[in-house]
Automatic annotation (TrEMBL):
Domain Major facilitator superfamily (MFS) profile: residue ranges: 54-463
GO cellular component labels: membrane
UniProt-listed Pfam families: MFS_1 (PF07690)
Principal location class: membrane
Family statement drawn from the similarity comment of this UniProt entry: Belongs to the major facilitator superfamily. Spinster (TC 2.A.1.49) family.
Protein name (database record): Major facilitator superfamily (MFS) profile domain-containing protein
Lineage per the UniProt record: Eukaryota, Metazoa, Chordata, Craniata, Vertebrata
GO molecular function: sphingolipid transporter activity; transmembrane transporter activity
Regions that span the bilayer: 91-112, 119-138, 144-168, 180-199, 246-272, 293-315, 327-349, 356-383, 432-458
GO biological process terms, semicolon-separated: sphingosine-1-phosphate receptor signaling pathway
Domain of life assignment: Eukaryota
InterPro entries noted in UniProt: MFS, MFS_dom, MFS_spinster-like, MFS_trans_sf
Membrane topology, as annotated: Multi-pass membrane protein
Subcellular location, record wording: Membrane
Organism: Chiloscyllium punctatum
Length: 478
């Protein structure tokens, strides 16, 4: 129920000094700006929705961010064929990207706490989109130049991933913040899945994988233009965060990054090789290679990302009424359960590709439970003036220990195993599968870190709340 005050918060309420005739209708003396549904009132109502509009635009930008990352993974077989590179060299593409991204996050975390965040975001998007577009014109002998371009893209994308979630956290609080962060982090599986789909569909339609990067680059430029009209506030600079919950949740996040980095890069190619072994498709001998598995995996990633976030938020809301440690315990359950189904992928892939896809569906849904929850944990154990720095530190550590080296590591292990029988399609498939079996063990380790987070979460949350209250008292006295 809206209660009118001297300055009304009700978008459809009239002014308190409105003059009415005897029959209750507004008199002619009433100002047009003060009548119900007037342009002024409509503008005020729209202004109140500005945080939600800003969150929507930021989420769309994050979708484009992840589309750009995973378009390359969606056409990885074509890139290998085009440049004539092995699994280990292909694994360098995400490694170079993540290493550059990882180095840039502390820089943008520092800048985001001190300078205009809208300008930083827009410049970052323009930069990475332009580099993606230019990289589509790199010729065959220059694989090293393509590697450098992915590093530059990673540097530009770091600006977005570091700053955007802190803006949303500053605009909302409590359950609303959890919901909006869930909406924002849904962009990760949605953008990842659309990246596979975009790469596969554009490549099949044009007959050239380069066009997938060109379409991606244009999307990014349009997103940067949308970002400019949003006015964003800045937080005050603060000190780096320090709490056991932050440390353990960051280590758990690194485990998630390790697993998602590996699965995102190698699973489509692994399933392609599985279909070759099962005689469902022919080996890739000319471009473009079959993009069916990238297309299916992309669609599964979109759906499981949505389901994972919805189930995760619903589970935490329900469990919060029973336990103050609900958030990390739900994350731990998701991780530990996911490891079982990720392991079963490698059992089914040899004989039943449908069974492998079912395991991917369930395993990814459980793995994606924790994305928004982990971000929310960070926001309530770290005071607002340290959030950009905290996100930067968590992102840096997660990528350093996670997906910065995991795709390359899997590629190297696969090549080492395959060299014993290099000419067999079956051994090419099995060698990659053996290398991928490292993932379930890392996922279990991440679940263990979430259990450790649950041990400290209550005291760290109370400490952060107390610090915020002390800051408010100081500001009132001043």
């Amino acid at each position: 129920m809206c209660v009118e005050k001297e300055t009304s918060d009700c978008p459809l309420s009239g002014s308190s000094d409105e003059i009415r005739s005897l029959n209750g209708a507004p008199s002619a003396a009433t100002s047009a700006a003060d009548t119900p549904f007037s342009p002024a009132e409509k503008f005020r109502a729209l202004y109140r929705l500005r945080p939600h509009i800003a969150a929507g635009v930021l989420s769309f930008g994050y979708v484009v961010n992840y589309m750009d990352r995973f378009t390359v993974a969606g056409v990885l077989a074509d890139i290998q064929r085009h440049f004539g590179v092995s699994d280990s060299k292909s694994g360098l593409l995400p490694t170079v990207f993540i290493c550059s991204f990882m180095v840039a996050t502390p820089i943008f975390g520092f800048l985001g706490d001190r300078f205009n965040r809208k300008l930083i975001l827009s410049c970052g998007i323009f930069f990475w989109s332009a580099v993606t577009l230019i990289s589509s014109f790199i010729t065959k002998p220059n694989f090293w130049l393509f590697l450098i371009s992915r590093g530059l893209v990673g540097f530009g994308e770091a600006s977005y991933s570091t700053i955007a979630p802190t803006i949303i956290a500053d605009m909302f609080a409590k359950d609303t913040r959890t919901c909006m962060l869930s909406f924002f982090y849904f962009a990760i599986p949605l953008g990842s899945g659309l990246g596979y789909i975009l790469g596969s569909c554009v490549t099949q339609a044009s007959g050239d994988w380069h066009w997938a990067l060109r379409v991606d680059g244009e999307w990014g430029e349009c997103t940067a233009a949308e970002m400019l009209p949003i006015v964003l506030s800045n937080a005050l600079p603060g000190l780096p965060p320090h709490s056991p919950s932050f440390v353990f949740s960051t280590l758990a996040s690194a485990s998630v990054s390790f697993a998602t980095g590996v699965l995102g890069v190698w699973i489509p190619l692994y399933l392609f090789r599985a279909e070759v072994v099962q005689k469902n498709i022919e080996p890739c001998t000319a471009e473009p290679c079959s993009g069916r598995d990238s297309l299916i995996f992309g669609a599964i990633t979109c759906v499981t990302g949505f389901l994972g976030l919805i189930v995760g938020v619903a589970a935490t809301r329900w469990y919060r009424t029973k336990s103050s440690r609900a958030d990390p315990l739900v994350c731990a359950f998701g991780m530990l359960s996911s490891s079982i189904f990720i392991s079963l992928i490698f059992v089914f892939a040899r004989f039943n590709i449908v069974g492998a896809y079912m395991c991917i569906f369930i395993g990814e849904t459980l793995l994606f439970l924790n994305w928004a929850i982990t971000a929310d944990i960070l926001m309530y154990v770290v005071i607002p003036t340290r959030r950009s720095t905290a996100v930067a530190l968590q992102s840096f550590t997660s990528h350093l220990l996670g997906d910065a080296g995991s795709p390359y590591l899997i590629g190297v292990i696969s090549d080492v195993i395959r060299h014993s029988k290099p000419d067999l399609d079956l051994w090419e498939f099995l060698s990659l599968g053996y290398a991928l079996m490292l993932c379930p063990f890392i996922i279990v380790l991440g679940g263990t870190f979430f259990l450790a987070t649950a041990h400290f979460i209550v005291q760290d949350r109370n400490r952060a709340h107390q610090q915020v209250e002390e800051m408010r008292l100081v500001s009132v006295k001043v």
